[in-house]
Amino acid sequence: MKVIVRTPSRLHLGIIDPTGLHGRRYGSIGLTINEPYFEIEAEPSDNLEISCNKQYYNSVLETLNTISNRYGVSRNVHIKISREIPMHVGLGSTTQLKLGVATAYLVSKGLSINVEKISETLGRGSISGIGTYAFAHGGFIVDGGVKAGKPPKPIVSLSFPEEWRIIIVIPNVEKGYDEEAEKPIMMEVKGDSSLIMEIAYLTLMKLIPGIVNKDIVEFGEALSNIQVLVGKTFSKYQGGVFRSGVVDSLVKKLREIGGLGVGQSSWGPTVYAFTDKDIGSLCRVAFKCLSDYGVDGSIIVTNARNRGADIRVI
């Protein structure tokens, strides 16, 4: 028996209150997307075998060890990763990798899946619940943040217009902060109460209604404004409202050409933009911007994914 898990990836669109000034800390906004994705295979083996790019090996091994100990199952399994999400570029690769490996492994052993429990076992989702619930359910998600040490739960879960196209630009520049580097920043970041209130208002009264009413202009205006406000909060740590250089230029150029809801996912360097029109002009502008900076990179055209991971048993 072979189990194949196809994960989503996610865009992290912002944090409502990174400081906890009003009792709850964080409160993440995110969107599940179709590409890029991990495709992870698990099948029985006489011993433990892992076939993957070396950058993923330690995470895969750590996941298998943790799940084996927690669920009391043998590690006689062959894990193969045939499609990949780039690491530490703002697309939530670590959570998708770990949940995908754990799911494939457990299903191959004939066990049932509870994504929330697996996520907790693996130490995922303590700051943001977006990755966990993107894997479980997909769609647009807002979580309620952290209070009294309890992991964040989704308070908004919406189907997102799949007809809206999304351009994902991943410049080949210095990667964003990993989780260890991020921890001290998230503990010390200082917030402005007026900015926090404005982000919350924009999320509730413009961003979400824009999705529900399929009004891409309202959605885009709200998201662009949220991105600027969140960027101001973290500007000390990333060199500006957006990461400097090609990332900042990509945001500006994509806005100028008509991209909506343009922003930086998490710590970057991934930049995204939405449109309900021809996406070719956005792709051309992104390519030229990368070229002007002498930077290689990837340009992906995708859309929202309104379901979680796919699991196939063959």
Give a short synopsis of this structure.
The protein has helices at residues 54-71, 93-108, 115-121, 130-136, 179-188, 193-212, 216-233, 235-238, 246-256, 280-292; strands spanning 3-6, 9-17, 26-33, 39-44, 49-51, 77-83, 140-143, 154-158, 165-171, 260-264, 271-275, 297-302, 310-313.
Give the strand order of the largest sheet, numbering strands 1, 2, ... along the chain. 5-6-4-1-13
For the largest beta-sheet, the strand count, sense and barrel status come to: 5 strands, mixed
List the helices and strands in order. Answer: EEEEEHEHHHEEEHHHHHEEHEE
The number of E-state strands comes to 13
The CATH class assignment of the largest domain is: Alpha Beta
Identify the overall geometry: globular
What count of helical segments does DSSP give? 10
Q: What is the percent of helical residues?
A: 25-40%
The CATH architecture name of the largest domain reads 2-Layer Sandwich
How many individual domains?
2
Would you identify the regions where 5 or more consecutive residues have pLDDT less than 50?
A: none
Radius of gyration: 19 Å
Category from helices, strands and their pairing: alpha+beta
Q: What fraction strand?
A: 15-25%
Q: What's the end-to-end separation, in Å?
A: 6 Å
Mean pLDDT across all amino acids: 96
- The CATH topology annotation of the largest domain reads as Ribosomal Protein S5, domain 2
